[in-house]
Amino acid sequence: MILDKLQISHFRNIDDLSFSAHKSLNLFIGENGSGKSSILEALHYLGFARSFRTQKHRNVISYEKSSFTVFCSTVVVDGKRQKFGISRHLDDRCFVNINGTKSKRATDLASYLPIQIFTPQSSDLLLGAPKLRRRYLDWLLFHVEQSFNLNFQVFNRSLKHLNALYKSNQPVQALEYWHQILCENGEEISTKRANLLNEQLKHLINANLRDFLPEFCFEISYYRGWEKGCSLSDAVMKNRHRDQKNGFLSVGPHKADLRIKVQGVNVHEVLSRGQLRMLVAGMQLAQTQYLHMKTAKTSIFLLDDVGAELDEEKRKVFISRLNTSDTQLFVTAIDIKQLEFLENYNDKKVFHVEHGQVREEI
Ligand SMILES: Nc1ncnc2c1ncn2[C@@H]1O[C@H](COP(=O)(O)OP(=O)(O)OP(=O)(O)O)[C@@H](O)[C@H]1O
Ligand SMILES: [Mg+2]
Questions:
Q1: Is residue 304 part of a domain?
Q2: Would the CB of 62 count as within 6 Å of ligand 1?
Q3: Of the candidates 310, 313, 285, which has an alpha carbon nearest to the alpha carbon of residue 299?
Q4: Ligand 2 centre distance from Cα of residue 312 (Å)
């Protein structure tokens, strides 16, 4: 998907902004507080219906306004231009519009617009909870494997029911129905994640890392969330007594993790901050590559504050690899000098950001 026209209203310090994006590379340059991250944050709403900086939607609505809106139209493909929009209100109402049809489910947008975000906080993928790494795998499966979404929803529903039954100390017979559904879908989720990682994604990540961090040799593995050599059903039964006491299920794909090590040691104990960021860059680039390989979809990549913690060589290798991966890029930086190496790229637009407005450099 390639975005063309963008329109943002009442979003942080952006009052009313319209611009036409470049199909491959868009640079946003401006001082602190000018509105660069807010532009990316507004685009992020199109793909995730939420911010990457706050959990509270009301925080992004401009002061003294009651709602924000973000609209985009794509470039014409097969004679068709697609249009998407989202608005959120102070009273928490959310309106989504997909090609003229209204939807109340914010997540409906996600399947159309595969958006990826890379910020100085992206190292949390390696430093933070396993949930973030599961989300990394699941984002791809969501876009690539239709049946994964159903497995995921049904699994989560059965987990909720089973936990509630554990808490209320129900007899074994009452658990059977949800136990079976949970295990069937849990095994499916686990197999799909492991296949995704082991068959292709791991190779793509490793190939990127040979460029990005040639000094290290990474070991990437998937921990599925229960012990080796037994089925999920057996693992649930084995732990049932203790789990019922605690009131929640302690084994299953909701406990899975993606583990990355260097010589047997977790990467966050070995790599520097900048190196961790580059590792995440290699992982995210692999997502883009895999998505493009498996579907006709191309992703929209948002790179916020690209100068932070990455030296010039690293910025250069990351952006140039993204640029050759059929990705539409939106990059922010405080100073154009941080992106000097892009001077030779003719295929781009440069926008100067000031007080929530942009001026395109001609
Ligand atoms: N709800 C809001 N309404 C109006 N303005 C807001 C709101 N929330 C934040 N702001 C302001 O919007 C401005 C733009 O912030 P933004 O984070 O986009 O800046 P930036 O250009 O990315 O800066 P930096 O280079 O420091 O990252 C800031 O001055 C911020 O204080
Ligand atoms: Mg910023």
A1: yes
A2: yes
A3: 285
A4: 19
